[in-house]
Amino acid sequence: MRELLVGTKKGLFVLHGEGPGPFEVTERAFPGDVVEFAMRDQRTGRYFASVTSGFYGPRLMHTEDLSAEWQAAAGPAFPEDGDDVLDRIWIVKPGEADGLLYAGVAPAALFVSTDGGESWSRNEALWKERVAGDWQPGAGGLALHSICPWPGDPQRFAVGISAAGVWITEDGGETFRTGFDGLVPGYIPEDAREGTSALCVHNMHRAPTSPDRLFMQFHGNVYRSDDQGSSWTDIHEGLPSGFGFPMVIDPADPDSAFVIPLIADVDRTTPDGAVGVFETRDAGATWTARRDGLPQDDAYLTVLRQAFGAAGEGDGLELYFGATSGAVFGSSDAGRSWFDVAERLAPVTSVRVA
Amino acid sequence: MPVVTLRAPLKDLAGGNSDVTLEGGTVGEVLRNLESTWPKTVGWVLDETGRVRTHVNVFVNGERVREDAAVTAADRLHVLPSISGGA
Prior knowledge:
The complex is a heterodimer of chains A (about 350) and B (about 90). Chain A is an all-beta fold and about 350 residues long. Chain A is built from one helix and 28 strands. Chain A has a four-stranded antiparallel sheet, with no helix packed on it. Chain A has a four-stranded antiparallel sheet with strand order 4-5-6-7, with no helix packed on it. In chain B, about 15% of the residues lie in helices and about 25% in strands. In chain B, strand 3 (about 55-60) and strand 4 (about 65) form a beta hairpin.
């Protein structure tokens, strides 16, 4: 039995089921509030939910038992003597040490927990880069939304920021360097691109079996890096559009990536009214449309940044994504066929396999 | 001491109390004391900088005020969400 955590504009939905679905809604939490992101730390079993009240602001909640009361973490929160106010928690990501977790938030900052997510402190090195830099927000805010640990080495990880590019550390977050080379911000004038940090990363993932390699969904392109995120190669040729938000990879295959193209930034819907997941198994040289079982007529869906999750690997890779229409789709065979997981939830912000 | 009147969900976070008596000479001080007395309310009414959140309204004796407004021992504060449209 598979457990899905589906964050929506109207709370967290917990679904249980098996492919080919549909799944059953077994729990709902935080009704009325936006659940930006929800995940389960597989190491401890602890669930996390990023909850934003339209009135009372954002907070990170956690529980060990979905049927029990959720507890508020101590943070992430900005220092009381500053001018910044937490707007949104975009992601929570386990690190490569016991109790280590990262949280990416808006306005763009990295928070770190060393006690399993009970308490959080801001990474000051990246914050200093933000203060010193001219970081600009994307349409969704100035958001640190992607965190890519290096398997087995807590000293090395990379983060992706909209719209401030890729930042890489090799000393556990004491210092950061940029990973901007090759990224082309087509949304600003050509003569203003040189040296800009206005790089709108939409999503970024590291291949765990070949950690020098990362894949990125950018604002108008898809990229691959073979040098730990330092430089990037455009691999969007063969896709109906270079624009999109979510991305997943097959952890067993460093040449794999899955994206869900949308028309463009001015029309963030699935091209031609047809829903397609596009898969590469050759590091972006070619792309294959995976549409079997997905709506192909008059289906103008928007799939948000965190609304694509996966479990397993290889031929048994399970894929799940949700749309702002409230529909959730699943695949139990690495995308070769799809089924309806849920048809009418609230607008989906996040999908993760528990 | 000023009395703070709370509605759900703040009431639930304050142990189910709809009326809470707290010390403080300003709205901000009273609300910080609410947080220290009932830690589950931390961050709900005041943001990190100590300002009343944009979509929360605080009234003192019927007048909408901000965190720097003075209060007296005889005052009653109402804390409630703003009337907002949208979905």
